[in-house]
Amino acid sequence: MADRKAPSPLGPDFSPGALDDRITVHEGMQTIEIDYTGLTFDTSAEVGAFYDRIEQRITETGEPLWFFLVDTTDYRIDDSAWFTYTRRGRDVQEGHSMGTLRVDRSADTAARIERTRGTDRFNPNLFASRAEAVADLSTRPSRRRTRVGHVPSFLKSEFLRRVRLNPATDIAEVDFSAMSFEHSRDVNDVFNWLEEELRATRRKWYFLYNYEGTRIQSPAWLQYSLRADALRETWSLGSVRYAAGSETERDIRQRAETREIRPNIRNTRTEALTRIDEMKAAARR
């Protein structure tokens, strides 16, 4: 595939097996426990691998909402990885968290908790031991009692007017401009409609995406990544995006960093078409 690349290198602590050892799903407690103990994030790619695996484990449960119990004793984040760490952490918090409790078993943290107890600087989500955090979890209300019925944001007839398939150029042009994917329902609707059109062609395409003013909100990102990956594997000869806003572009680049996919983002449609021509030329060699 024309937009394949070698993924960024990762340390041994960030292999799927090593990360799975740090992620435990407690169904009865409605809690995902994450062990950061002694972990060092040296690069944004390692942050991406970490959060990719957390999101995959969330998807496997079939439940979108969880409490998170995290042990951050002696973990470190390099300055170069902080931005990605905060962005990806925010996405998980906004999309999947009913509350996050942090455990830090260091003596300094225990002293700080006692020193600030009863003051406005006291952090009710910070604990000096796992047992204290688990006890507090049992007092917190779940938000799973009623399933959220997502209200769809798009109409099929209107979206399909945004899709143009040109057999003469092998290009499938998809206009996501000014669309805001609010939740997984929006993502599934759009990709289901798009894949229906593609199945009728019985062939693969070069994809040209207009991302001008596109927003992918935190609750939608996980499903968007999964559906985009599946579409790419089945239908794509290569993909190029253009006019992505700064926030969406950052998110796309961060999530591509640990994968074998080039984000292929260009400023204009003309530049994006030039990139597709380059892909075609490379495929003919």
Gist of the model:
The chain contains 10 helices and 14 strands.
* Cα-atom radius of gyration: 21 Å
Largest sheet: 5 strands, mixed
Strand residue content: 15-25%
Query: What structural class results from the helix and strand content?
Result: alpha/beta
Principal-axes geometry comes out as: elongated
Task: Give the mean pLDDT.
Answer: 89
Count of distinct structural domains: 2
The fold-level CATH name of the largest domain is Transcription Regulator spoIIAA
CATH homologous superfamily assignment of the largest domain? STAS domain
Give the topology string: H per helix, E per strand: HEEEHEEHEHEHHEEEHEEHEHEH
CATH architecture field of the largest domain: 2-Layer Sandwich
> How is the largest sheet built, in terms of strand order?
1-2-4-6-7
How many helical elements? Answer: 10
Number of distinct beta strands: 14
In whole angstroms, the N-to-C terminal distance is 13 Å
Structure write-up:
- With 285 residues, this protein is of the alpha/beta class.
- The chain has two domains: 12-137, Transcription Regulator spoIIAA (2-Layer Sandwich), CATH 3.30.750; 156-284, STAS domain (Transcription Regulator spoIIAA), CATH 3.30.750.
- The chain is built from ten helices and 14 strands.
- The strands form four sheets. A five-stranded mixed sheet has the order 1-2-4-6-7.
- Helix 3 packs across helix 8 (218-235).
- The longest helix is centred in the N-terminal third of the chain and has 18 residues, at 44-61.
- The chain is elongated.
- The two termini are 13 Å apart.
